[in-house]
From TrEMBL:
Pfam families: CoA_transf_3. It comes from Paracandidimonas soli. GO terms for molecular function: CoA-transferase activity. This is Crotonobetainyl-CoA:carnitine CoA-transferase CaiB-like acyl-CoA transferase. It comes from the Bacteria. Keywords: Transferase. InterPro entries: CoA-transferase_III_domain, CoA-Trfase_fam_III, CoA-Trfase_III_dom3_sf, CoA-Trfase_III_dom_1_sf. The keyword Transferase applies.
Length: 409
């Protein structure tokens, strides 16, 4: 739908002093919503993830560029400026950018920016309206505040790996991390929410504030029902493989030619599922009639259902279960995902012009706004691609001074 309305964050400037994933994921959200995100990177090196390859983006000639796929996942719609904040002039220029920014996002170690005058207490003296978001492993307070924190270790410390993987005693049992950096990603999402809340509050007070985001906090918070399973019983949940602690049947089943997921969410769906599987009487069985009964008699029920599912092919069951209104689905590879008709219809694969490769693939934002949609303006920038542009147009530096700065690195 076309609209004359500006993007939601049109006119908002974000100074991005983050690297790797949690911070860049947050600032990519803000950029997608129309903010002008200026990404500050180290000269010659840039964001750590620029080197996290292979794989790398391929150019028009089929040869790999220097742009790592990992970096491309979280830096769309931004401008890249290379400044060495360890130098007096570099730090001074970043402070000047902060004075003209609405939001600053950083993921340095606690206290790491103070010596450059780029900490919250210093910058709020110069820009009281600045919303300053810090993303760290453990937050700005507490005994672990100064420790570095990476997603993998946080998945372990925050409880996720205690409930992910095959049950103890089963083949392949043991702690297992998620296949993507969920602690980083959820922290990036929570940080986005916190920043937007502070931005909304600023409309009333005219003042910014410090948003303190910790990977550990976010990992613990996202344990959701598993948190409450523990807090209401005092018993720590354990790994259950692909089964669900509170719903049955809600797991992977093996068919005659592959696997599928059956996700029964209520008693009506269970009755429909039993009918499809040729065992309608199970819905009247006192052991299985209600979900609470099924959870208590999980092993007995699965011992009946699993052999039934194995009698026919995956696609047979998927079609029959869908027709009966029972949630079920395949286990797709990413190659399958991008061929899925629903994924294609929703336009989840996008392409953006890229200065080194001609074009770069990207994944559409899941944010769908009817009248001010996400804008796909620019591919993730080359290192320092916009340095001159920003120093000239935002800070008003003369061309000669920019050349002198470049000469000094």
């Amino acid at each position: 739908m076309s609209s004359s309305r500006n993007a939601p964050l049109h006119g908002i400037r974000v100074l991005d002093l983050t690297r790797v994933l949690a911070g860049p994921w947050c600032t990519q959200n803000l950029a997608d919503l129309g903010a002008d995100v200026i990404k500050i990177e180290r000269p010659g090196a840039g964001d750590d993830t620029r080197g996290w390859g292979p794989p790398y983006l391929k150019g028009e000639d089929g040869e790999s560029t220097s742009e790592a796929a990992y970096y491309l996942s979280a830096n769309r719609n931004k401008r890249s400026v290379t400044l060495d904040i360890s130098t007096e002039r570099g730090a001074e220029l970043v402070r000047a950018l902060a004075r003209g920014s609405d939001i600053l996002v950083e993921n340095f170690k606690v206290g790491g920016l103070k010596k450059y005058g780029l900490d919250y207490d210093s910058l709020r003296q110069e820009n009281p309206a600045l919303i300053y978001c810090s993303i760290t492993g453990f937050g700005q307070t507490g005994p672990y505040a100064k420790r570095p924190g990476y997603d993998f270790m946080i998945q372990g410390m925050g409880g996720l790996m205690s409930v992910t993987g095959e049950p103890d005693g089963a083949p392949g049992a043991g702690p297992q991390k998620a296949g993507v950096a969920v602690a980083d990603l959820m922290t990036g999402m929570y940080a986005t929410v916190g920043i937007l809340a502070a931005l909304q509050e600023r409309h009333r007070s005219g003042l910014g504030q410090h948003v303190d985001m910790a990977l550990l906090d976010c990992q613990v918070a996202m344990m959701a029902n598993q948190n409450m399973n523990y807090l209401t019983t005092g018993q720590a949940p354990r790994r259950m493989g692909n089964a669900h602690p509170n719903l049955v049947p809600y797991q992977v089943f093996e068919s005659s030619d592959g696997h599928l997921i059956i996700a029964v969410g209520n008693d009506t769906q269970f009755a429909a599922c039993c009918a499809v599987l040729g065992r309608p009487e199970l819905a009247q069985d006192a052991r299985f009639a209600r979900n609470a009964d099924r959870v208590g008699n999980r092993d007995a029920l699965i011992a009946i259902l699993a052999p039934a599912v194995k009698q026919k092919a995956r696609d047979h069951w998927l079609g029959a279960l869908e027709a009966a209104g029972v949630p079920a689905g395949p286990i797709n590879t990413l190659a399958d995902v991008y061929e899925d008709p629903q994924v294609r219809a929703r336009g989840l694969r996008q392409e953006l012009p890229h200065p080194a490769a001609g074009v770069a693939p990207t994944v559409a934002s899941p944010l769908r706004l009817s009248d001010t949609p996400v804008q796909y303006r620019n591919a993730p920038p080359l290192l320092g691609q916009h340095t001159e542009e920003v120093l000239r147009d935002v800070l008003g530096l003369a061309e000669e001074e920019i050349r002198v700065l470049a000469g000094k690195g």
